[in-house]
């Protein structure tokens, strides 16, 4: 795989301690995302436009990586930034923008922990894109590990599907009194499949792009999030009448925006110095954080299928990284 030299030497991987801390923080933020969105609900629905949250998240990421460059945390390339290398970031910005909006809509059709576990269905598609686009081969142990992650999602889906008629008309189960049951509607499952397809393609393409360009990570983020802000601004403006940009926002909503912005920056570091599968395992391991927060904040009831899925994910992590 060729490397485009942007004139910046020594773009090495972070130290082991720093790398571990980054992965732990990313795991915590992934796990907290769906419960925080559930806490934003008013009368069973998200009170703000999903496009508003995504636009503010992209804008926050853009401001943070710009600040990183301005204060000198990462150096500019010699001779100035090669702007011709910015154009390829338009595609992942479009894909991420679509998925970031979709993930908020998904919360209407499933509970946070069901979303967290079933999002592992993206693994099969990502493995295919990974082998085709990056021309990498997986060992038998690694392939088995990925199958276990997919099995965990399928196992959980079998116990989580329910008739949407069991909920209040027009409201997700989060609006009901009492503990929140595990649930997913058929429409939610269909949207989740689309989400997983886009997620796999965007992750592999972004990894390929970031590793081919020998540029500072903050500069690559600047390219990516500039397109992200422009695209999401267009989506927000073209979304028709609805709440204003900040209408319906609460402290929980602000925390969603900030945590997702920080997690986006951490994820880009994982893509640059790790791999798409490292990110996948971070998402899978965030199941523990998600379960703790969902049980504590939403009184979510966790049946045996949930813990079986968690066990399969733990075994998959051991197989995949134990083979190295």
Automatic annotation (TrEMBL):
It comes from the Eukaryota. Its main location: Golgi. It is a multi-pass membrane protein. Keywords: Membrane, Sugar transport, Transmembrane, Transmembrane helix, Transport. InterPro entries: EmrE-like, Nuc_sug_transpt. The chain crosses the membrane at residues 20-42, 54-76, 88-106, 144-162, 182-205, 217-237, 249-270, 277-298, 304-321. Pfam families: Nuc_sug_transp. It is found in: Golgi apparatus membrane. Belongs to the nucleotide-sugar transporter family. SLC35A subfamily. This is UDP-sugar transporter protein SLC35A4.
